[in-house]
């Protein structure tokens, strides 16, 4: 784990840091074409950090033109893979060298504890870029099984211009999951960050250029979803949209693609992870710790957040007691203090949304065991206490909808078939977790659970080497692993008659 600077140092750095706030096109920061901006508030104290250029369809047009030109003239797409690899490695190294600055921008922008932005988010970005840089000169084409008088080559080519549209919960981390493989494969990229979290995306655009990624290959257009996001989604010259965000907006991108140029779409959308605890879990203390981290990490603003806790009836009482003991110890605090492990919500809107869900839990008759309040309002910050509901029924809103906040919904189950049925009763299917020492039960559950990722006696075990993504309305297409690289390529079959 990287050593982290003390509290005073972060406060000092926060005073001095510069906030990037312009659109980045063709290797330059410029104002939005229409001259519009929107305010960037910190959820830590409500302060307006800067005014960010509000890109719209004209800016998207310029960014896509620049990306297309770069792609067609081959300044990046035609480089030998090992050269792209070298430049991407330099890019990762520069990000590592700017880790404090980037972590601080992330924390000020969206309230994530500096502890995590500095030791998780930014290192994860560096790892992802390195992984795909390392991979790209190890991907081979195929030769088709044909006769001696003919030759069939199956090659993978970059798609062209990839639009990446990302959310605010792990702003740079999620963006890297898109741009790293897309760039490694030789594509040009136009990145649209979420309006709540544009700062790190804008900052790394210049870092990419310094590292040797040619101008035009990596463009960043901040702006609002319905304007900049939609313009990218509907653009006739964008070959693919790689999206992470809500299911609702994911569906819009399918529509945009269908109504424009039939561009490819990859969607990583919402989730409602069932975390299933059997009485024969190998270590209940470990299961408790994971259940707590699984819902409260990043203030619950995680697509894979273990927001539905399913506990076997016979251990329900003792499990909840231990869980409450652990959850009570979590203290929301200033995200700039490295001792803080639970920061703010991303903004006022999300805070209000989560409080409404908590209210619906009360109204629909769930038992509130812990939290449920907004606190520290005098700081101007968006703090909600860790919240635990018990006696939740499957039809309740808090059991069905993705809250994207620190709110746990607990349901007791009788046996594995009851647990499977409850777990699968969701429009989502991103992750599911099972805690049991019974190997055969674990395998059966893993098969029966409708989720893109199942973890046994573990939670949130993301590995670069394993595909990440969902089924049902959690989306399709996978990030991470070589599958996450292949989706930024298309196959070409070349047939050669030798006689
Ligand atoms: P969101 O509202 O769906 O926004 C995601 C992105 O889409 C943002 O850049 C947003 O821009 C843009 N957008 C919004 N409306 C649009 C429109 N009409 N047309 C085109 N683009 C539009 O999601 P969010 O609130 O940022 O993030 C929370 C959601 O992301 C949750 O549902 C969560 O589950 C999901 N998520 C999924 C994963 C995963 O890997 N499966 C990971 C993280 C988060 P603006 O910000 O400007 O609106
Ligand atoms: Mg949004």
**CATH overall fold name of the largest domain:** Aldehyde Dehydrogenase, Chain A, domain 1
- The CATH superfamily of the largest domain is Aldehyde Dehydrogenase, Chain A, domain 1
What binds here, in terms of ligands, is: NADP nicotinamide-adenine-dinucleotide phosphate, magnesium ion
Q: Just name the CATH architecture of the largest domain.
A: 3-Layer(aba) Sandwich
What is the tally of beta strands? 24
How would you sum up this structure in a few lines?
Helices cover about 40% and strands about 20% of the residues. The strands form seven sheets. It has a seven-stranded mixed sheet, sandwiched between helices. The protein has helices at about 5-15, 55-75, 80-95, 100-110, 115-135, 170-185, 200-210, 225-235, 245-260, 285-295, 315-330, 350-365, 395-400, 415-425, 440-450, 485, and strands at about 25, 30, 35-40, 50-55, 140-145, 150-160, 160-165, 190, 220, 240-245, 265-270, 275, 310, 365-370, 375, 385, 385-390, 405-415, 430, 430-435, 455, 470, 475, 490-495.
Written description of the protein model:
With 499 residues, the chain is an alpha/beta fold. The chain folds into 2 domains: 7-269 and 475-493, Aldehyde Dehydrogenase, Chain A, domain 1; 274-463, Aldehyde Dehydrogenase, Chain A, domain 2 (3-Layer(aba) Sandwich). Helices cover 40% and strands 21% of the residues. It has 16 helices and 24 strands. It has helices at residues 7-16, 57-73, 81-97, 99-110, 114-136, 171-184, 199-211, 225-234, 247-259, 284-296, 316-328, 348-363, 397-400, 416-424, 439-448, 483-486; strands at residues 23-25, 28-30, 37-41, 48-53, 142-143, 150-158, 161-165, 188-192, 218-220, 240-244, 264-268, 274-277, 308-312, 367-370, 374-375, 383-384, 387-390, 407-413, 428-429, 431-435, 453-456, 471-472, 475-476, 489-497. The chain has a 7-stranded mixed beta sheet, sandwiched between helices. α3 (81-97) runs antiparallel to α5 (114-136). It starts with 6 loop residues before the first helix and ends with a strand. The structure holds NADP nicotinamide-adenine-dinucleotide phosphate and magnesium ion.
């Amino acid at each position: 784990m990287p050593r982290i600077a003390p509290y005073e140092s972060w406060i000092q750095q926060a005073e001095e840091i510069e906030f990037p706030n312009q659109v980045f096109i063709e290797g330059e920061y410029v104002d939005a074409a229409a001259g519009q901006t929107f305010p960037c508030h910190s959820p830590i104290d409500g302060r307006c950090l800067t005014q960010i250029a509000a890109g719209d369809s004209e800016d998207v047009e310029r960014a896509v033109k620049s990306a297309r030109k770069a792609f067609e003239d081959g300044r990046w797409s035609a480089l030998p893979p090992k050269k792209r690899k070298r430049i991407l490695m330099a890019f990762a190294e520069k990000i590592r060298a700017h880790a404090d600055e980037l972590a601080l921008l992330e924390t000020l922008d969206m309230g994530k504890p500096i502890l995590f932005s500095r030791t998780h988010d930014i290192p994860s970005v560096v790892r992802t870029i390195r992984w795909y840089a390392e991979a790209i000169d190890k991907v081979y084409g195929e030769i088709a099984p044909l006769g001696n008088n003919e030759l069939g080559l199956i090659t993978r080519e970059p798609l062209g211009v990839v639009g990446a549209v990302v959310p605010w919960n792990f702003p740079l981390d999620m963006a890297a999951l898109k741009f790293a493989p897309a760039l490694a494969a030789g594509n040009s990229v136009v990145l649209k960050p979420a309006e709540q979290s544009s700062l790190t995306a804008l900052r790394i655009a210049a870092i990419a250029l310094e590292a040797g990624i040619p101008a035009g290959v990596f463009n960043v257009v901040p702006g609002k979803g319905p304007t900049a996001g939609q313009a990218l989604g509907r653009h006739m010259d964008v070959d693919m949209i790689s999206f992470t965000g809500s299911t609702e907006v994911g569906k819009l991108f399918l529509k945009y693609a269908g109504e424009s140029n039939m561009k490819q779409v990859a969607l990583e959308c919402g989730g409602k992870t069932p975390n299933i605890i059997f009485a024969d879990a190998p270590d209940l203390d470990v299961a408790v710790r994971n259940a707590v981290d699984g819902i409260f990490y990043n203030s619950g603003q995680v697509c894979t957040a273990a927001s539905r806790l399913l506990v076997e009836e016979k251990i329900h009482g003792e499990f909840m007691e231990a869980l409450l003991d652990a959850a009570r110890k979590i203290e929301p605090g200033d995200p700039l203090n490295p001792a803080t492990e639970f920061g703010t919500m991303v903004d006022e809107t999300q805070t209000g949304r989560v409080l409404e869900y908590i209210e619906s839990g009360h109204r629909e008759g769930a038992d509130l065991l812990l939290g449920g309040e907004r606190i520290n309002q005098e700081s101007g910050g968006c703090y909600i206490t860790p919240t635990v509901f018990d006696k939740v029924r499957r039809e309740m809103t808090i059991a069905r909808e993705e809250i994207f906040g620190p709110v746990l919904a607990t349901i007791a189950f009788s046996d594995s078939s009851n647990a499977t049925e409850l777990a699968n009763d969701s429009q989502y299917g991103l992750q599911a977790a099972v805690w049991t020492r019974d190997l055969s039960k674990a395998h059966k559950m893993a098969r029966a659970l409708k989720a893109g990722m199942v973890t046994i006696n573990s939670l949130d075990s993301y590995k670069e080497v394993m595909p990440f993504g969902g089924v049902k309305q959690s989306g399709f297409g996978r990030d991470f692993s070589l599958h996450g690289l292949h989706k930024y390529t298309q196959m070409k079959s070349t047939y050669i008659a030798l006689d």
